[in-house]
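INTERNAL AUDIT FORM
Audit reference: QA-55
Scope: verify that the stored structure record matches its stored sequence.
Auditor: D.O.
Record contents follow.
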Amino acid sequence: MQNSPIHPTVDFSLDGVQHGFLRLPHSRDDSAWGAIMIPITVVRHGPGPTALLTGGNHGDEYEGPVALVKLARNLKMDQVRGCVIIIPFLNYPAFVAARRTSPIDSGNLNRLFPGNPEGTVTEKIADYVQRHLLPMADYVLDLHSGGKTLDFLPFAAIHLLDDKVQQAACEAAMRAFGAPYSMKILELDSVGMLDTAAEHMGKVFVSTELGGGGTATRDSIAIADAGIRRFLIHAGVCRGRKTVPPQTTLLDMPDGACYTLCEHDGLLEMVRNLGDIVQQGELIARVYDISRTGVPEKRYHAGRDGILAARHFPGLIKSGDTLAVIASMADNPQQPQESDSLKPLAP
């Protein structure tokens, strides 16, 4: 296969703190010999595990980018044993356009793995992550939220895996992240995801959904800040003292009944809030016809017992949109984890 056209301006083998770019040549009308410059920070200190931290996989999700920009500025070499690779804006063209997908090629990066070095801009980014970054990583944390169209309870998430030893390692890292909720998630479409690529390579992988609506809040950013630090401590890249982690409520998405898909275009009225406990058959939303008045609304009911974990965010909704996600609850006892305070590591 052809070598990646992406050239890193950092050296992943050098000790120290490096701030640079993944440089992707991109000829366009306003820059014939131009390049897309994806910011990257690498902090390495001797031998040890490698953690890959990414945000901006979708360009309209902000907790990850905010938290990772701060980490890149503040993380010191003496706090690290091994390597931390930080990419706050993985799909950089989508991020600067505040879009879920790239304005260059309409590429959804999180559906294009393993990518293609001879493909579109977004496929080239996926290929570089697949063939150059993931092989270096032992632990991968990909920070998401709901973007402009969804709103979530703040949770860290893993998937059910065939390799139960690997799944247990992922679950331990998810618990260490310490989000208010922790989810074993069933994806509607897992083909081409960074999640799937990392899991197939045997990595310890954790994702998140930390809010939504195309913005971030003080609380959602604080969850990301603290969770990243606990994840790094758990991975052995950073050291912290033993403490009890924040309480997390364990959630599960065991089947398709968790998803309520809209079958009508119209005006959305949610009648239950995120975090509400609902019963199967209970009314959760109404959708009103916006083409005329005097028409009965369409009613949507919970497909299972559980907690309302996600909802459509904009006021207008279309047929085929996910209207709500209802997760089941399973509360397991928590084990002491490392603290979220990063400490200098002895040489």
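Auditor finding: record pair retrieved intact. The radius of gyration is 21 Å.
Action required: none
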